[in-house]
Request: fold
Amino acid sequence: MRLLIRPGVPEVAEAAADLIEERLRSGLRVLGLATGSTPVPTYTELIRRHRAGRVSFSGVRAFLLDEYIGLPDGHPECYREVIRRDFTAHVDFDDDAVRSPDAWSADPDAAAAEYDAEIRAAGGVDLQVLGIGRDGHIGFNEPGTPLDSRTHVTDLADETVVDNSRFFGGVRDSVPTRALTQGVGTIREARSLLLVVTGAAKATVLANALRGEIAPGCPASVVRDHPDAVVICDEAAAAGLDRTPD
Ligand code: PGA
Reply:
């Protein structure tokens, strides 16, 4: 695992966009996307580079990590709308090349299995972008999720519901409590992982993920035993680490 520590959010976004740009140039075909606040500056930087003619997503397929269950189709906070608004509508992705778990299926368990199959049929994810929750989750894999889990239906931890209520006008009861998420095992199968972490609120969990046990108690810890994982964080998020940047 490579750890890159940058001064602040703009430099993290630039470093993350550099990595994605480099992978696009070397033939990346399947990109795993994360929602949440952390990757937004990276996506904004990629949009800027696209407009400058530097990067293209033509022919690239994208798979989202997760999707809420229970929101009306088309709700502005469902993740397939969020990613469109924050990123994919502003670059040259084909709309149907951006995939997400079908949280509106009458049979969410079957939809989960189909999503794994769809990722496999696409040849697997070349590079998966990840954020980390304050409880150590990746995707919606909360602490305790088996490290070999596949895409599945899950309940959100209370801390995650509270954290995500900011996207729902601060109203906790408006946040769905269930989701479909790629499993930790699904995520680990991506050929490369890019974990982006910013802000002092993530300092404790980042230290746990990078210096504690690789175990279900902190799903993000799996970045450490992946053959090609890069963690890019800012100084604020790195505050709990002993400092050994590259
Ligand atoms: P955030 O979410 O980027 O909005 O902090 C990260 C996550 O919950 O995975």
